[in-house]
């Protein structure tokens, strides 16, 4: 599977068409603009295997869940990202022959993702009717400046003949999700309209009643001149189309521009949708395809200017990191606090719920460092607005007094996952949401956020930890029983070190915050405490007691933290001892065997050391890294990046590089044979962190940025951008020196290794 | 819900019809004869709520499973007991009015289960068409002597008018399971035949291709004389019927006798089914309803003569124990080694797989003590024949070299359950199957069984334990990680005391058996060792090592065995501290809360103390009982009986009686609000054991029977029958004396308390 796609600094290229790889390519070449997304399905009819995917952010369907054995507290519904009505359709017939890449003779085929400029292109040369050769191209983009607009340039050129070319430009809402549990279709028609030259299809989702209006119009050109056509209309349930023909002489190119506007009731009143769509189509036509494309490219230029990573001397790594940055920015633009970052973004249906703890643990640090602070804030507000539902969720599980358990998987704040060992026990997610508040504030310096929003969430999560911990008479310590840590290859364990660490951290951060606000902003504090019915007399002492007396398991001999109680009773083996044909173990071993083995799916104790690195010296980190890395099989996409950062931290650059490659090209090289389902969007953020925090050694120390860069042997240099409290700066690392360039006006306080520097606005310093 | 049914020594009576209770009553009044079973559905049309259930033993369907999150090793199919074609149907119309108990005015209604004679009766008096009053009765039984025959006497008497009575006698295979996962019907028609006076319907199951032939014939009588009728024929897909009318004068009774034969391809060649059915119907008509009924009653007399328990002074307890004995004997007759004892027998669809460890742990001891030794042997041979499939099942989970893991739930030897924490981890079931071999031999004295069948199974199970245990460097002991014990309110725990005990016991029993056979029957032993590729050099020392060095967790302070590692870290609370409105906790608490609580679903450590009682002194049993009983919520039907036996063992008769009542009237009083799904057949055996082993204190000591009887305060006396190595004896206990009556020729070696007696054949002794 390796290197199916060509390596290039700015492009991903599929040269030649392999139908077996089509689902993979549809994922890899996906487009998105934060508002909608589209897998790289063909515009024209295709009778081969494919996975249709058009997605509108925030539009979901609560499908009835399928579960063998029900447990109390399971949600009845699983919110699915919906495969939305299909707007890309352009069917093509030439001299009566339907163009279908599964049927025609393909002479050449090239599919290109242009990451610099944000579009998808396809060129193919085919022969039909035995002798007639055609060149066909399509280019499409989802506008980054006008996010409801999708544009397609579709051209047809007879190479060695003159013929009649017939186009059918259509909209179609008769679509279904591949992951529908009971074979249901989720879209109903609200209305449709078709005329010569334009069409509209308004659909609504069952149950959730989201309305999505698609409007289309188009222009046919030859030699840059509009061709006059007389379209036939097709008007049937859930489908509207215009069909029209034109003659193309030998070597003449017919170019069809399709303009589509996708408007959802998330943003507009349902009754206004038709008018809005029409306005938007008028705007699109008035602007024209070229202007919209150049605006779109400008927007991508701006993104790259503040988030690009340049790697000299390793094209494979270069392509990979840009692929990751590109897809992250396609998935989430931070403009709408109701949206979030699905693990697969807009590239597939899997993990149908939009939001996991991936957002806080991986997505947020990336956006905090590469985007305006409002982007990070919106990710936090998303959770803030779900606080009440999280309190209700905790109540369902028997918690009281405003304790909150954020859902494992959610679209609208309600839990929609049901495996008891995850839904009920993978509670460390709550800690990630608390930590995100700290992380946001230290990155942005926005201290107001705490009293305005953060503390309410912290109190609710602290209450959860306080009630979830119980006292062990036996140990004379507080314990947290029956949890699943980030390493999901252990279920229902006691005293997961990572979970206990997060619990104690949350409690102590909340206590400290209350103390600080008492001094600094006591009137706002008072409001929060009143709103949350906070009880000073009972809650504060209980939390302090838990902070002081939580149980943490340590192997005194090896001086490592123990992932959970009883971990040492396992056979402690190296992952290298697993036979090759049994990897990945999650595809070969039964679940019990995985559980009782020592093998670790993803960073767990190490995830904790990553978060709370400040508390531990390098030797401690190294001992734990050496102990756990050898047992870690990295069968989660979120694992290798954290290990890579820690390997850099302890100076093991070879290991760091090995782990970096594993995470960076996970999708491009399809390590886990699952790219057909979609891309690993959230882990892409981890890849970026592996460069910036790993190789770059970048950290925040109070109001300073710390750098301790390393560089992999085979890299000549690398550079990255980052933001810190309103300052944009660029770091360029080579084996001999590091340049830190401050691109803003404000001075940047820098610690390089152990030395302090001030990088004044618009200047750079060189450190050797 | 208490006392909806009238209490009576030999009857269960529903007086008056409550449609809300109909599903419950259909379960309670179920009939069966080991070969087929029938819920107490009405013969005539009923438009109210009911749960149709006709079952033919051994006829199942592997329905595709529904599971939210798939794990490697899960079976794709779940074998369901099928709701078989309906043979009881008799529709009734009087003066044009369809008789439907959901529509007519019911003046009186009485449904009776006659447990002494094994039939179901229904009498009701209704008014139709405003003024016309009718008396209707039905009586049906499934013959214990001719198990393919089902017979119904159905009579109609106009009380205050003369009218036209129309009967439709039919067979119908257009039925479905309520628990079908994808709404499918499982039966296809093979052929049908209908003529005036008789009909036949042959159906086959999809996938499994079982054929079931139903044949019917009937007689209509008035004043004991056959009434001449001219039936109309209905012949449509999956349905055949005869419809005919007759006039009944005021006070005249029309009596319809329906004879049905149910023949399955489990017992006959498919092509012979029509001929067999016809033969059987001829036989039935020739014998006549009355003769067949009296033969049936005689057979029940025989059963009661060897298995009845008589309780004087407690009608509630008396009715309950007979209800349990009755249903056990309806479910399993031990004539066919391919059959087993489903947890719900023939009373519902739930727990659709036929066989659980309930059979070995509860069913087998009951049948070993109340039935011919061949009955117990057939239960063992059932597992022996599934050995190869159990080895394959273990292979799927990564075990090697002929290790066997018997399925948690099965119909044909293949696993058909998928909850990882049960399917893969509730491995103690394997131990129950090993223990059953020991239990069978000590009850029957059939030592030949070991070399012929038993040892092969023991070796395969020992191999499983040997591979499942791993060495803990930390503890310097062998450990068994990641298991679920009988207490399913703990999942994925380490070193469950019960499981480890069973593992060690199995290994040591297998070692001892090999040693004994080496001395006694070395040629047979040689064959087994060759067949199993047994390796003396590696297997024997490994097993001995495991026996010597298994880890068992003990609370040294309390001197109790610990259910699992870390049990003491829980908050140890009494079940009494659970608020009433939160019970049963499995209907009110989320699963994680149950798991991290100390509460115990069913006997776990205590189940082990019950099995291996000989190894522990009374004080040890008492300490463990006191520690665990208070935390046990008995939310499994298999729990209270074991606790009751142990309460008797430690002399706590009040507690033993309290627990006895809980188990004995579980279904009659519908403690857990679930009788509508069917009865708890296997736990009924536990109830019987609670009297015999509990109050009676009966044990086997080598070749002797030990008795240490107690009697609950409110009982005048109780008596039970039991068998031991070919001897049938009766024990009658009152507060002043115990009579032991040997009903066989051979002498019975008895230990009463601590004193030895010999009860010669056909004599009795009285002990005070």
Shape of chain A: globular
Largest sheet geometry of chain A: 10 strands, antiparallel
Number of domains of chain A: 2
Q: What is the fold-level CATH name, i.e. the topology of the largest domain in chain A?
A: Glycosyltransferase
- Going by CATH, the architecture of the largest domain in chain A would be Alpha/alpha barrel
The total of beta strands of chain A comes to 33
- Average pLDDT for all residues of chain A: 95
CATH class of the largest domain in chain A: Mainly Alpha
- What oligomerization state is this entry in? homodimer
Instruction: Measure the end-to-end span of chain A.
Output: 41 Å
Strand content of chain A: 25-35%
Low-confidence runs of chain A (pLDDT<50, min 5 residues)? none
- Greatest chain-chain interface? A-B, 48 and 47 residues
Number of helices of chain A: 20
- Structural class by helix and strand composition of chain A: alpha+beta
The helix content of chain A is: 25-40%
- What is the CA-atom radius of gyration of chain A, in angstroms? 27 Å
Could you give a short description of this structure?
The structure is a homodimer of 768-residue chains. Chain A is of the alpha+beta class and 768 residues long. Chain A has 20 helices and 33 strands.
């Amino acid at each position: 599977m390796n290197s199916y796609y060509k390596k290039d600094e700015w492009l991903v290229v599929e040269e030649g068409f392999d139908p077996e790889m089509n689902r993979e390519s549809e994922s890899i070449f996906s487009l998105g603009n934060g508002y909608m997304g589209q897998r790289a399905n063909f515009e024209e009819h295709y009778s081969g295997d494919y996975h249709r995917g058009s997605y509108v952010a925030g539009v979901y369907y609560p499908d009835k869940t399928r579960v063998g054995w029900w447990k109390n507290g399971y949600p009845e519904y699983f919110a699915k990202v919906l495969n939305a009505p299909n707007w890309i359709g352009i069917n093509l017939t030439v001299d009566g022959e339907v163009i279908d890449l599964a049927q025609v003779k393909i002479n050449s085929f090239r599919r290109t993702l242009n990451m610099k400029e944000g579009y998808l292109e396809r060129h193919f040369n085919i022969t039909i009717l035995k002798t007639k050769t055609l060149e066909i191209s399509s280019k499409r983009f989802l506008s980054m400046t006008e996010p409801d607009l999708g544009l397609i340039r579709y051209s047809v050129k007879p190479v060695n003949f003159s013929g009649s070319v017939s186009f059918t430009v259509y909209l179609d809402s008769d679509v279904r999700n591949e992951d529908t549990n009971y074979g249901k279709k989720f879209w109903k028609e609200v209305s449709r309209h078709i005329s010569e030259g334009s069409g509209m299809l308004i659909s609504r989702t069952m149950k959730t009643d989201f309305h999505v209006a698609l409007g289309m119009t188009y222009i046919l050109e030859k030699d840059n001149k509009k061709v006059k056509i007389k379209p036939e209309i097709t008007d049937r349930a859930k489908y509207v189309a215009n069909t029209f023909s034109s003659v193309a002489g030998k070597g003449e190119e017919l170019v069809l521009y399709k303009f589509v506007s996708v408007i959802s009731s998330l943003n507009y009143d349902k009754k206004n949708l038709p008018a809005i769509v029409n306005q938007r189509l008028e705007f699109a036509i008035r602007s024209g395809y070229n202007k919209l494309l150049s605006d779109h490219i400008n927007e991508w230029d701006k993104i790259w200017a503040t988030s690009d990573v340049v790697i000299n001397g390793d094209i494979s790594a270069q392509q990979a990191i840009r692929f990751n940055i590109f897809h992250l920015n396609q998935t989430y633009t931070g403009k709408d606090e109701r949206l979030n970052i699905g693990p697969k973004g807009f590239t597939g249906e899997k993990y149908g719920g939009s939001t996991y703890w991936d957002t806080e643990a991986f997505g947020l640090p990336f956006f905090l460092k590469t985007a305006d602070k409002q982007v990070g804030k919106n990710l936090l507000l998303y959770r803030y607005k779900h606080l009440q539902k999280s309190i209700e969720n905790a109540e369902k599980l028997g918690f009281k007094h405003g304790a909150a358990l954020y859902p494992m998987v959610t679209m609208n704040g309600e839990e929609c996952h049901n495996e008891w060992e995850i839904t009920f026990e993978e509670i460390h997610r709550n800690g990630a949401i608390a930590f995100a508040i700290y992380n946001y504030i230290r990155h942005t310096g926005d201290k107001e956020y705490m009293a305005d929003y953060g503390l309410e969430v912290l109190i609710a999560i602290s209450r959860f930890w306080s009630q979830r911990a119980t006292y062990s008479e036996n140990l004379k310590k507080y314990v947290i029983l029956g949890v699943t840590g980030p390493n999901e290859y252990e279920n229902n364990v006691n005293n997961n070190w990572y979970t206990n660490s997060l619990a104690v951290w949350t409690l102590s951060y909340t206590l400290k915050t209350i103390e600080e606000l008492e001094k600094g902003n006591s009137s706002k504090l008072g409001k929060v405490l009143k709103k949350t019915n906070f009880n000073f007399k009972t809650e504060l002492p209980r939390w302090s007691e838990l902070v002081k007396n939580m149980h943490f398991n340590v192997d005194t001999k090896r001086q490592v933290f123990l992932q959970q109680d009883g971990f040492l009773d396992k056979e402690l083996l190296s992952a290298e001892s697993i036979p090759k044909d049994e990897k990945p173990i999650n595809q070969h071993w039964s679940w019990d065997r995985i559980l009782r083995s020592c093998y670790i799916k993803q960073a767990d104790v190490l995830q904790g050391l990553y978060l709370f690195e400040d508390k531990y010296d390098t030797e401690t980190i190294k001992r734990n890294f050496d102990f756990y890395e050898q047992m870690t099989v990295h069968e989660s996409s979120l694992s290798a990046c954290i290990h890579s950062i820690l390997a850099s931290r302890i100076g093991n650059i070879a290991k760091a590089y090995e782990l970096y490659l594993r995470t960076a090209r996970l999708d491009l090289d399809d390590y886990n044979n699952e790219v057909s389902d979609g891309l690993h969007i959230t882990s892409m953020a981890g890849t970026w962190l592996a460069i910036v925090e790993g190789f770059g050694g970048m950290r925040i120390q109070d109001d300073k940025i710390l750098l301790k860069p390393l560089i992999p042997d085979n890299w000549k240099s690398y550079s990255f951008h980052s933001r810190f409290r309103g300052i944009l700066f660029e770091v360029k690392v080579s084996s001999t020196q590091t340049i830190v360039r401050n691109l803003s006006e404000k001075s940047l306080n820098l610690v390089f290794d152990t030395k302090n520097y001030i990088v004044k606005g618009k200047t750079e310093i060189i450190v050797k």
